[in-house]
Amino acid sequence: MMMTTLPRVMLLAPQFWISGTVTLARELQLGWPADRQPVIACPTRSGRPSTQWGRDVGAIRRATHTSWKPDIMGTAEGVLEVARDAFDLVHVTEPDIPAAQRDWWHDTLERLPVPWTLTLNGNTYPDVDWQRIINARRFTGVVWHTPGHVPPELRDARRPLRIVSLPRPYTLRHDVSAQLPRLAHPVFALERRESPVIGTHCRIAPDKGVALVAALARHIGACVCVDGAPQAGAMPYTLTIQRSYLPEDDHVPAEARWVSDIGPGRVSYMGSFTDGVVVAREHDVHVSATRLGFSAGHEYSLLEAVDAGCVIVQPEHMTESGCPLNQHTYPWDRRGVVGALLEEHRALSDAVRDAVLAHESWYDQSRNRTLVAEHHDPGRLVRAFMDEVLAVI
Q1: Which pairs count as long-range contacts for 255-258, CB under 8 Å and 24+ apart, including other chains?
Q2: Three-state secondary structure call for residue 390
Q3: Which 3 state secondary structure label does DSSP give 178?
Q4: Could you give the strand order of the β-sheet that contains 242-245, starting from the edge strand earlier in sequence?
């Protein structure tokens, strides 16, 4: 029997400690009507809250830490019981989970007691057992696919699937239409007067291309700022030639902050954060360098940079045809840490120079904000997705 009213929805977020999946879950909540707003649930094997949740910015040391907590947590059995008793639909925000828990996670999905749907976040997911997901008893076959890779196991599945291509939901939060004063920070007081700050904020991992961004300090003499919590072994200070620690302040502890002179420019690493829009307001030009094949489309860091009023530079594969931003693009090129420093990526350098000129000539940010507000509107996207879901449950 087809359901005609909006179901009660649980958002099942297995990796509620990676910034993108946390933001996705929170933005999805905003897309439902207030009287039917879903809750975010995250099961753990022990049933105890993760020590990675609820950290303030001074306690965040790695990209696996977040300042947010899910609404519901417990053992898989406890979460499944709540889903059965109180919800009509479960939407899974991420198909993958670390290898040590992968069998447990697939078993949890197979035992979901109500119909469920899935988000694909544009990644390749080489370790997901897609056959177990496709054959799960209550899986509806409806998939919210954000721009990027579609696993061939889903694309060529014998079972009919509804793969609904929709952008990531996002709600603009900050009014910067009048170029409100930037955050005052002693590190950038001099550079703000002399030249724009080139910045990126993201999970510091090789797939995010931080080496390419930091190397702009050497190749075009830019002041570059990198914000974000690192994954193990991915700290951008592998790029440093001379490093000096900055004094501790209320924003970031001293051990997580440093400045490096690289050629004519310099790189400042400002550590972790809890609000991407706030740190993006410390940047004038936002540069994305996410690896081709890792992801595609507008990442949350880019949407936060638009929210903050930055001029946008990003690889061609990260653009979205349905949202023609006022932006500067370049063809992505693979570079390691050493290669990024020794060999200039000229197309990237040229795009950043053009972005700096746009900033200096009074960049109009209203168009990008209007486009993002329409294209990534959570309410519109949830309605489009639920039309597909209601057709099968």
Answers
A1: 256/61
A2: helix
A3: coil
A4: 242-245, 258-262, 265-269, 223-227, 197-201, 285-287, 311-315, 327-330
pTM of the predicted protein model: 0.89
* CA 4/CA 27 separation, integer angstroms: 24
Residues 326/367, Cβ–Cβ less than 8 Å? yes
Which residues make Cβ contacts (< 8 Å) with residue 52, sequence separation at least 6? 17, 64, 65, 66
What Rg do the C-alpha atoms of the chain give, in angstroms?
A: 21
**First-to-final CA distance of the chain:** 7
- Per-residue tokens: 276: 């991407």
Angstrom distance (rounded) from CA 389 to CA 114? 13
C-alpha–C-alpha distance, residues 277 and 268, integer Å: 18
* Sheet of strand 116-120, all strands in order from the earlier edge strand to the far edge: 72-74, 39-43, 9-12, 89-92, 116-120, 139-145, 162-165
Q: Following CA atoms 307, 18, 140, 130 in sequence, which dihedral angle do they give, to the nearest 10 degrees? A: 130
User: Mind listing the pLDDT tens digit of every residue in the chain (393 residues)?
Assistant: 444 577 899 999 988 877 788 899 999 999 998 888 999 999 998 999 888 888 777 677 677 778 889 999 999 999 999 999 999 999 999 998 888 899 999 999 999 999 999 999 888 888 899 999 999 999 999 999 999 888 999 989 988 899 999 999 999 986 544 333 333 333 333 333 357 899 999 888 878 888 889 889 989 999 999 888 777 655 554 554 445 555 555 555 555 567 777 778 888 887 778 888 888 988 999 999 998 888 899 999 999 999 998 999 999 999 998 999 999 999 998 877 678 878 899 999 999 999 999 888 877 788 999 999 999 999 999 999 999 999 988
Asked if residue 239 lies in contact with residue 218, where contact means CB atoms within 8 angstroms, the answer is: no
Alpha-carbon distance 109 to 90, whole Å? Answer: 10
The amino acid occupying position 16 is F
CA–CA separation, 216 vs 211, rounded Å?
A: 9
Q: How do 39-43 and 9-12 pair as beta strands?
A: parallel
Cα–Cα distance between 65 and 63 in angstroms, integer? 5
CA angle 104, 110, 116 (to 5 degrees): 120
Please list, in sequence order, all residues whose beta carbon lies within 8 angstroms of the beta carbon of residue 243, skipping any fewer than 6 positions away.
237, 258, 259, 260
